[in-house]
Design goal:
Blueprint: E1 2-11, E2 24-31, E3 38-45, H1 47-54, H2 63-66, H3 71-83, H4 85-90, H5 95-111, E4 120-121, H6 129-137, E5 142-145, H7 147-167, H8 174-183, E6 186-192, H9 196-200, H10 212-216, E7 230-236
Parallel strand pairs: 1-4, 5-6, 6-7
Antiparallel strand pairs: 1-2, 2-3
Helix pairs in contact: 5-6, 5-7, 6-8, 7-8
């Protein structure tokens, strides 16, 4: 595969959060030797949401507070202040913004191809007929790291829930076509340094447990309520 010499960049926005910077989506294109096949790589970064919160504790590792600490204590303090806040920020008031960032990125990923993807944009994205078409014709996989694994799972459920509510009672709508395409899709998930078990602590248990056959077998009672056709998960607990 050959990597594209440039990337395209989207500053993410969402109508539910006017004026809020929801992060950046960067897209690169990779081609095989004879340019007969392509792979698009999407990189989502939502640090624009979390960084302002982290700035509030930056003083804790500054020279004014660190000069009396032992070196190992300072390293541990810096590590905990860098890594610890993210789950707390996500489970707090910024959860909605982070999930909106994921949903918006997923919209851009399914609604556009390389030729129609703008070089740079701050426009919002809305699911259209192309999203359903790309879901049916293209192959997708998602790679997540650490907290991102939980956000991916929550984000996919939110997408399905919101689109289903809009599509309710209108089988010919764009949203209905999108849901149908999603429910017939197999999407592999590659989770690196997974934090889902940690982030489940203190949460209410899932509403549905142990009913996989009812949702994912064609003759199952809730087959028409499935999220996707099949999910394969490759997990790294490191």
């Amino acid at each position: 595969m050959l990597r594209s010499s440039k990337y395209k960049e989207i500053q993410l926005t969402h109508r539910d959060y006017p004026g809020v910077d929801l992060g950046v989506l960067r897209v690169r294109r990779l081609m095989n030797e004879d340019h007969s096949r392509e792979m698009l790589f999407y990189e989502l970064t939502w640090s624009a949401i979390t960084n302002p919160e982290k700035e509030k504790i930056k003083y804790d590792t500054s020279g004014e507070y660190s000069y009396e600490r032992a070196e190992v204590n300072q390293l541990l303090k810096k590590f905990s202040n860098d890594a610890g806040p993210d789950p707390m920020i996500y489970l707090g008031k910024s959860r909605g913004e982070i999930l909106a960032s994921f949903r918006t990125a997923f919209c851009w990923m399914t609604e556009y191809d390389w030729e129609t993807f703008p070089e740079k944009s701050t426009s919002s994205c809305a699911i259209g007929l192309k999203s359903a078409k790309h879901l049916m014709e293209d192959e997708f996989s998602i790679i997540s790291h650490s907290l991102g694994s939980r956000i991916v799972m929550d984000g996919m459920h939110e997408i399905a829930k919101r689109v289903t509510e809009i599509a309710e009672g209108n089988e010919m709508s764009v949203e209905s076509k999108f849901i149908t395409a999603l429910q017939n899709k197999q999407i592999p998930f590659y989770m690196m340094s997974n934090q889902i078990p940690l982030l489940e602590m203190g949460e209410y248990p899932p509403e549905v447990i142990g009913e996989a056959d009812a949702y994912y077998l064609p003759d199952g009672e809730h087959y028409n309520k499935r999220l996707v056709k099949k999910t394969s998960i490759a997990e790294n607990q490191g």
